Amino acid sequence: MNMPLTVTDVVEYSFCPKFPYFINVLGLDQYEQKRGTVTAGRKLHQLHERNNPNYTPHTSNGKKLVARKFYSAKLDLSGKIDEAIEMDDEIILIERKYSDICDISDTLLVQLGLLSILIEENLGKPVKKAVVIFNKTQRKQIPVVIDDAIKNHSLEILEKTKKVIQMGIMPDADFDNRCLNCCFRKICPVGSLNSK
Questions:
Q1: pLDDT tens across 144-156, in order?
Q2: Mind listing the domains of the chain with CATH numbers?
Q3: How far apart are the two ends of the chain, measured CA to CA in Å?
């Protein structure tokens, strides 16, 4: 692999193991710009990056980090945070989601785990908690404890993602409701080319 994997690549594997095959092996595009929710979410992120760059949404005294990119040579992984609050002895990760479904899913935990690892490696301070802010028609903040189990699970998903790309074989995945709105639904076989 010439380019490092991104946290988004790994999160997509967590959503469906076939995503890194379609995107990183076959080089297919998701055409996210055609999806209204994705576009609206990006606009919301840009708005928060621009407005009130020093405002912290918590009663914490710390330095606000906005839209910072991090890289790990050890993991060959890069990622971009929405926001974080750098305190004296720790960093609080803030992730914004444009959704009314206020659910801390496995894909979100993988994202938080990998971003926490990148922050810790680059800034040398622990990330013990995150706050996920869901914001579409309502606003809800959910605190998440970032522990070793979340970080280790995220690293396992990272390794599985790398394996799919290195082997170049489409992995198995189960059909479920996510498939109905998938950008690859027209080309994705229900089974796998590498059946057991």
A1: 999 999 999 999 9
A2: 5-181 (3.90.320.10)
A3: 27
